[in-house]
Amino acid sequence: MENGKKSQLECALCCGRFHQPKLLDCLHSLCADCLKKHKTSSSPRLKPASSQAQQVPRIVCPVCRQETELPTGVDGLKTNVYLIGLIDEIVMQEQVAHCGDTKLTCGSCEDTGNTAVSRCMDCALYLCAGCEKVHTRFAALSSHTIATLDEIKHGVVEVSKARLDIAPKCRRHYGETLAFLCETCQELICHDCTLVDHSQARKHTFVDINTAFADRKQSLGELFPALHYTVLVMEESVENASEMNAGLLASSEEAVKDINRRAAEMRAMVTAEETRMIENVQRIKTDRAAKFQEYASKVNEKKERIQHSLTTARNLSSTASKTDFLSLHSTISKELKQLSNQKTQKIDPRLGFLRFAGSNEIDGRVNLGNLVMEGKWEIYRQFGKEGNGEGEFSCARGIAALPSGDIAVADQWNKRVVICCTDGTLKQTIPTEDYPFDVATFNHQLIVIDTTNYVKVFSTDKTLLFDFPTVPAAEVGKTRVNLASIVVKRDGTIVVGDIYRKVLTEHRPADGSLIRTVPVNTPPHYLAIDNATGRLLVSGADGRVLDAVDVDAGVTLFSLKPRMANERVEYCTGVCCYSSGIFLAMHNGSDTGHIHHYDAQGKFRGCIARDLHYPMNIKVCAGQQQLAVADWTSVKIFQLEHI
How many domains does the chain have? Predict the structure, then answer.
């Protein structure tokens, strides 16, 4: 068996193989005896549930430090029968693998010197040749699986599969198979139990083991996508913290240079002040670096806990027997649900902001300036007006940030895509036969959707490279579509939003061939992708909602229903992702537009712009320091400035 699987079967306290492993609330397993010793040694940590109530003893997990209540002591914890089965499997494989060195004796006959030649997988007994013949003659044993030692040794018989197929027996009623789950007691029972201790007359309800297994496996599996997404968000959070820290280091160095330059102009008076301010920068840098490290450590700790629980639950769901699974389901389900409710605390983006703002005052005092600790989005530039001429727009709906630093705008009613500099200088115009809705870019190409049924791919010199439909070839012209949005994944996969069919279609960038079609709950009027987690953000326009969707799992991770002045907004429009979260445009009509900032899990952070005309689509550009807004008749660019 693989070393990784073997390491999962070792107790973290005694470092040996588990002996009667007990499952804690955190889903870590430890030997019963080891836990009893650990409980004794950690008894000062035991705390009462309430100062007024009876004390409920608790034990601290030595692996993750999470507490588990012990109302009936260590023996009252659930035994991890799944691990016991795996250990038995390893022991048997090792015994058979080394049987050439050490003779295995028959475990059935009285003459213990007989050499075993096979093993009954149901009885877990090694059998000699004579006992093997006798074993198969009994009617009650005729269904048992018997494998020769060579078959086990060479993998002809799958030991784990044989173990899963063994039907466990009831301890109360001899020979009866555990075939039901009492939902009242959450206990596996046999047919006789349903007539006595767990009968309907006693108001017990029970279901057959297959139904219970299928239902609980499904309910447990439904927790997986959200937890997997939480892990991805945590990884993204740590990565963002690292990037902020790197940015802080760079900006702090730049701040030192600015301070030095300013100090050179006032050298006679500023030596003492220069030293003081540089030391202040270093102090802030050190303090914040420690906060970044502490944050990363805490998130990684939580992430590891979730990953452990998720791995444990997945292993149980995919490899455990029905009885093993059901015996551990309630504990594992409780832990996964608790973890699912946890929110990832976001790092304060202000910690990564540090600038030097120079002072122009020279009045006899040494005053170089101040350190700026926080940024604010301010209008940086705007251009355009209503019309159809150069520098004019009529429903600027889609917008894309090009690798060159320029901006492409889908000028809908003027039937064109305009490429311009961020100061509004026109560089290129690409006419379109129909009304363009959205534009995206990949590999120096422009991808445009309009009111036709085809997606068009242009080179930046206006050349139409190719176009493609969003339905299979056999359905072209037969299936109605209404293409409204487009976004490109990091690997180049093109994602198109169809608001008529309420689907997303994925296409290969080389030729636009259809990869798959994914249904969504909200009509995808606007789209954005979070490349860190792979989730798609679907904005529903007059649906007044934004959904964060895990396309691969087919689930909605969360939904935003924005409000302005304590009322639900009428339209959710453009959306984009940013290292510190999500930007969403919205409006209630003319000149009421807002742009709201949310963290990666959908928590409202603030309003960064208001009183926009009709904000349609938005994109982050200029190294995430600028936000470009297609605002119907103009383009507005916001920039992160110090305050």
Answer: 3
Residue 100: per-residue pLDDT: 58
Here the CATH number for the domain that contains residue 544 is 2.120.10.30
- Asked if residue 134 belongs to a domain, the reply is no
- Count of helix runs (H) and strand runs (E) in the chain: 11, 40
pLDDT at position 355: 82
Same domain as 362, residue 482: no
394: helix, strand or coil: coil
User: Is the domain of 493 the same as that of 637?
Assistant: yes
Q: Provide the pLDDT confidence category of residue 342 given band limits of 50, 70 and 90.
A: confident
Whether residue 56 sits in one domain with residue 20: yes
397 Cβ neighbours under 8 A, 6+ residues apart: 410, 412, 436, 437, 438, 616, 617, 630
Residues 367 and 451 in one domain: no
Structural domain range at position 41: 1-79
| pLDDT at residue 46 is higher than 60 | no
Contact (CB, 8 A) for 33 and 19: yes
- DSSP at 53: S
pLDDT of residue 235: 83
Write out the DSSP string of 582-607.
Answer: EEEEEESSTT-EEEEEE-TTS-EEEE
CA distances from 520 to 475, 527, 565 (A): 20, 12, 29
Q: Which of 321, 338, 372 is the last residue of a domain?
A: 372
Q: How do residues 559-609 score in pLDDT, each as one tens digit?
A: 999 999 899 999 999 999 987 689 999 999 999 999 999 988 899 989 999
The strand order across the sheet containing 146-148 reads: 125-127, 118-120, 146-148
CB 206 within 8 A of CB 178: no
Shared domain check, 379 and 337: no
Check whether residue 300 and residue 412 sit in a common domain.
Answer: no
Highest mean pLDDT among 134-138, 362-366, 449-453: 449-453
CB atoms within 10 A of CB 455: 23
Please indicate, yes or no, whether residues 335 and 389 belong to a single structural domain of this protein.
no
Q: Is residue 211 part of a domain?
A: no
Question: What residues contact residue 442 under an 8 Å CB cut-off, 6+ apart?
Answer: 488, 492, 494, 509
Nearest one of 240, 243, 250, 239 to 354, comparing CA atoms: 250
CA distances for 40 relative to 420, 511, 596, angstroms: 72, 67, 53
Q: Where are the beta strands (DSSP E) in 70-195?
A: 118-120, 125-127, 146-148, 180-182, 187-189
Residue whose structure tokens are 């058979």: 96
